[in-house]
């Protein structure tokens, strides 16, 4: 999904696949919970996928959906791979919203926010899945 969309008075223009394949950024991550464990009440993502507490998923404003990213907590060095299948966060200067499980793996669940580096590992699913020609491009470019 790379269609433009409108939220809270602002229009967002998702990047094309080629741009996304070599995209990386540093910014503030938060976590959000679209599901509950007891009763298995589930939320849906922008792609219509069910959200369960054990998923490592994320929301991003401009990456194409779906894609897989590596998120690294710059405060402790922990990393996790997440499937980006939702839009957001739409609060302040946050760059990515993570599932509770991903936030726990990165070690910032209790704090709520962390400074992270995001690196795109692949864009698309199945036969449409594309990877950057040189994995780790963003890390090598900026010395990560």
UniProtKB/TrEMBL annotation:
Gene Ontology BP term (one): cell wall organization
Q: Which Pfam families match?
A: DPBB_1
Which parts of the sequence belong to the RlpA-like protein double-psi beta-barrel domain?
Answer: 26-117
This protein's species is: Haloferula luteola
Q: Which keywords describe this protein according to UniProt?
A: Cell wall biogenesis/degradation, Lipoprotein, Lyase
Family (UniProt):
Belongs to the RlpA family.
Q: What does this protein do?
A: Lytic transglycosylase with a strong preference for naked glycan strands that lack stem peptides.
This entry's Enzyme Commission designation comes to: 4.2.2.-
What is the recorded name of this protein?
A: Probable endolytic peptidoglycan transglycosylase RlpA
Q: Kindly report, in one word, the top-level EC class recorded for this enzyme.
A: lyase
HAMAP family linked to this entry: RlpA
Q: CDD domains given for it?
A: DPBB_RlpA-like
In the record, what terms sit under GO molecular function? lytic endotransglycosylase activity
Q: Which InterPro entries match?
A: RlpA (IPR034718), RlpA-like_DPBB (IPR009009), RlpA-like_sf (IPR036908), RplA (IPR012997)
